[in-house]
Amino acid sequence: MDFKRLIEKALESREKAYVPYSKFKVGAAVLFEDDNIYTGCNIENASFGATNCAERTAIFKGISEGNRIIKAIAIVGDIRTYTTPCGICRQVISEFVEDENTPIILIKNKEDYIVKTFGEVMPGAFTKKDLEN
């Protein structure tokens, strides 16, 4: 799978972040089963609990368009290190990844990124499959 477009979209989304409090910009791009890429940035709020992460913004956009399966997700935060999803985002991602092998691309810049699987990022995830039975 070529991640170039996904990486570019995540980097573009990072620049749209609304972060007046933390100054920590995050961008995400999610490839869904419809082969469209949905993007998101983090959006802060004076009431910190009302803040939304980039990953969830992108995922919710894709879900609201009728998608249910994440094929890959790219995330960029601090461009000096790889930014991984927070715990809440990992749980939301777990709801929609097809399986533990779904690629999670952690980005510093267009040329510097690593690819992990969802299983590596969140081993032993509690998923909807745990509720079946």
From TrEMBL:
Record: residues binding Zn(2+): 53, 86, 89
The cofactor named in the record is: Zn(2+)
Single GO MF descriptor: identical protein binding
Which Pfam families does the record associate with it? dCMP_cyt_deam_1
UniProt enzyme class: hydrolase
Q: Where is the CMP/dCMP-type deaminase domain?
A: 1-129
What protein is this chain from?
A: Cytidine deaminase
Species name for this entry? Clostridium isatidis
